Amino acid sequence: MHHPDPVTRAEIRADLTRSGLNLIGQALSIFDADLRLAVANRQYQTMFDLPDDLTLPGSHFEDTIRFLARRGEYGPTEDPEQAVALRVAQARTFQPHYFERERADGRWVAVEGAPLSQGGWVTVYTDITDIKRQEALLRARSDALSEQVLLNAERLAAANRKLAATNAALSEAQRILTRTEARTRQVTEMVPAHIAHMDAQFRYTFSNRRLPVIFPGAEGDIVGLTLEQALGAATARTLHPFMERALAGDPQVFEITHPTSGRRIRIALTPDRDGQGVYILSTDVSAEVQSREALAHAARRNLAAQLTSGMAHDFGNLLTIILGLQARLAARDLPPDAAEDVQATLAAARRGASLLDRLAQITGAREPALEPTDLPTLLSDLAVLARPSLSEGTRLDLAVALPPGQLLLDPGALQDSALNLILNANAAITPPGVITLKARRSGDWLELTVGDTGPGFTPEALSRATEPFFTTKKGQGSGLGLSMVYDQTKMVGGTMRLSNGPRGAQVMLRLPWRPVARRMVLLVEDDDQIRAQVRDQLTGLGHAVIEAASLSEARALTDLPGLEVILSDIQLGDGLGLDLVGTVPLVMMTSLPPGDPLRARAPGPVLTKPVTAPRLAAALAAPAEEMP
């Protein structure tokens, strides 16, 4: 029998290796310890448009880097040779690395490299341009996204199908190339997916050891285990029908939610050609699903804005009529009982106007009405307000552990948010039960937590509770409560977190910790009446005030010991308040419209007249070392 000589066998193995690697969707290169190319696939040459001589085994890493640097692959450099030398020096260290960079043609590539035990390293390059575009779309307005979301979803689906086919073919190539198994395994283990083969008895015959990455808690070495042994009985029951259809020759692509971690996992099943089993590709698509949900959430929020804007306009007209009529009645000589009813109606109508203002917040951002607030007193008053509304047998407990002093908060919005959470908790509890409102400082944050002893959030509620119009109250709620709490919290720079605690549901609001600082302020204003009004506002906030009626007078006072802030009008009778820029932080106020060049010259905050106490408090709230 004729045996092929060793050279022919080596050539055959090399051809098989190249064929297998060419099936991978990502670009791949392997350089040895001497920085010479050992192997590269076709995608490596295509992605970087390399000449043939730089893709042949034995070509120098330095020559490839020099070619790419001169073409501008790494951006403009003053000294290309120095840049080449730096990258070659970094390569000699053979350190694992992962980074993402934008190429000269505007596309993005993710680069992941790992050293080889034999010396040298393997690098995988993945084109992530579509992912970057999706992230950019999520930062845009929902109306701009709506026209592009279908096209983007189609691109993502096509990319995943291509990846599934590529890795199924890779598994087959690994079975054939037994002499290069170690190197091929190292390549497949770098792919961010679980690649496996299962026989007709639902037993794993191959795995790239990435199962724990996709299914947290699973074993890494699963070859020889059954589906149930590797993933547990519950997950196996979910997968069995799909596996059976794939074994019958029908490819399957579907998504499941991992019951333990909550991850969304896409699984592609491809029957093998010999009919002896199924190739499996499992990828974590949680981020993609969240992106899709964020797009849908943005569209629903836009719809909510349109609906509430129209409702606010119509109800605003009705409330205007009601307030006018009640004001006329209040001016008459009415019996005491009737006069009391008129005043109560007026108060309710004004409250309705306040609620309309909250609805209007959905259509556009507003400035938070920050003001110095005694939070323990606010929460105590809230408890008095909320307790009569609770179900019989339900108790509201307060646990407030805060250092003394006032905080800069939006008290109306905060009270509305906390009351909303308390009433939601009351609706979820079957009496008797306990609702707990806790407040504490955690670093630079104020944490407010409303917990209850109810059944807790369902998985659907945990993922959708902040969506406008989503409700679990079966027709008894508008579905705007938690959405508005989320919006109000986000508006003041905070966050909202929903979770299930040991006894029930918990909602935590984290707000920036803004203690009210008492400052010595130099007030510069040439209008006597305005200066008096602003002075009263400043002293009402607890600040010490020194007054100046002109620029020249103010200049003589800027070096006073203990002076912390200058609050000045931009335009003064004898010059510009902008000329007071120096070592003391400067806050400006003006009647000039937004966009005026003088406003743009201000080094710090600019308050629009008439100045309100909440805006003053917010402008002066930052620590002195943080103010401009």
Automatic annotation (TrEMBL):
CDD domains: HisKA, REC. The keyword Coiled coil applies. SUPFAM superfamilies: ATPase domain of HSP90 chaperone/DNA topoisomerase II/histidine kinase, CheY-like, PYP-like sensor domain (PAS domain). Keywords: Coiled coil, Phosphoprotein. It is an enzyme of class 2 (transferase). Residues 156-183 form a coiled coil. It comes from the Bacteria. Gene3D superfamilies: 1.10.287.130, 3.40.50.2300, Histidine kinase-like ATPase, C-terminal domain (3.30.565.10), PAS domain (3.30.450.20). It catalyses: ATP + protein L-histidine = ADP + protein N-phospho-L-histidine. InterPro entries: CheY-like_superfamily, HATPase_C_sf, HATPase_dom, His_kinase_dom, HisK_dim/P_dom, PAS-like_dom_sf, PAS_4, Sig_transdc_His_kin-like_C. Residues 310-515 form the Histidine kinase domain. Residues 520-624 form the Response regulatory domain. Its EC number is 2.7.13.3. One of its GO terms (molecular function) is phosphorelay sensor kinase activity. The modification 4-aspartylphosphate is found at D569. PANTHER family: SENSOR HISTIDINE KINASE, TWO-COMPONENT SENSOR PPRA. This is histidine kinase. It comes from Paracoccus haeundaensis. The lineage of its organism: Bacteria, Pseudomonadati, Pseudomonadota, Alphaproteobacteria, Rhodobacterales.
